[in-house]
């Protein structure tokens, strides 16, 4: 007991109570951080604004790199940002992963065969097909690209309301939050 007293300066029960109190405090702080992250994640999951997109005849790493560069150029997010994609070879490519690091983005990929991990983009693909692509016949690629541009940049981002974000447009919803302050 003497060695304990000399080393810790208090009775074992006091030291244990202080350690427990300290652990309890750290646990509460960690739980608070988890709650904050969950709230921020819920906000971010609803952020439907498209900042970067590109069209091409083929799905290539150059295509996704152009979309990534456009998104970064428009947003210039502060700090590290989580970037989620599917498991396509374009996103797994060395060049794409390198560009994510340049932009301080942390790559996250869907689980193999699980479309629910990327439900937001899957939903968007369904919408653009139903609301635009299947309703039009394009004679040239240029016509299709112009139509897609107008759908995303004018209609989808700025006019189309979404029930999941309180019947606001993605632009309106985004203005409610300063996403650069979400950590």
From TrEMBL:
Keywords: Coiled coil
Limits of the Integrase catalytic domain: 8-178
PANTHER family registered for this protein in UniProt: TRANSPOSASE FOR INSERTION SEQUENCE ELEMENT IS904, TRANSPOSASE INSF FOR INSERTION SEQUENCE IS3B-RELATED
GO molecular function, a single term: nucleic acid binding
Residue ranges the record marks as coiled coil: 20-47
Superkingdom of this protein's organism: Bacteria
Biological process per Gene Ontology, one example term: DNA integration
Record's protein name: IS3 family transposase
Pfam families: rve, rve_2
Kinase recorded as keyword: no
